[in-house]
Amino acid sequence: MEDSNPWKTLASEVKYDNNWIRLTEHQVLNPSGGKGIYGEVHFKNLAIGILPLDENYNTWLVGQYRYPLKAYSWEIPEGGGPFHEEPMESAKRELLEETGISAENWREIQRMHLSNSVSDELSIIYVATGLTQGIAMPEETEQLTIKKISFNEAYQMVLSGQITDSMSVAAILKAKIMILNGEI
User: Fold this and answer.
1) I need a labelling partner for 178 at 20 to 30 A (CA). Which of 35, 37, 45, 111 fits?
2) pTM of the prediction?
3) For 110-132, b where at least 16 C-beta lie within 10 A, e where not — what string?
4) What is the mean pLDDT of residues 55-74?
5) Do 167 and 76 touch, CB atoms closer than 8 A?
6) Do 170 and 112 form a contact (C-beta atoms < 8 A)?
């Protein structure tokens, strides 16, 4: 039962396509047999997130205006990773690009789908330790504010709803459990 697909695709049409996403409209029969449409967003890159932690359990957040939300957002360093590139290499590049930080130690802590009702976007999240500070080099589309805070302050920002980005919430909550269990 878990592996069977109760949906039947009758026809599919690409409605929009760019370098990052493709939007396809499917004419379907739903699980009850009724006709309908289903919109699917295909992402052309992995979503990569990095939670940098120094030896004193400080972390770095990236603040930026998020156009779809029409709001400012505090997040862990994040970016896209091409499917042909090792995800950890994408993570190293994104951390350096957004914060200027490089790390000696990397650990994957979470894989998750970010909005599986409409999208196939897969996220891979890492904790980075053994940090060295360098110079940030954000992309031209990024106007970033970087702040170093204690991990506990970041955790409180999640609990109070000041951090709402799904990868950031997942990374910080997972890391909190790992810290409490002595795994980080």
Assistant:
1) 45
2) 0.92
3) bebeeeeeebebbbbbbbbeebe
4) 96
5) yes
6) yes
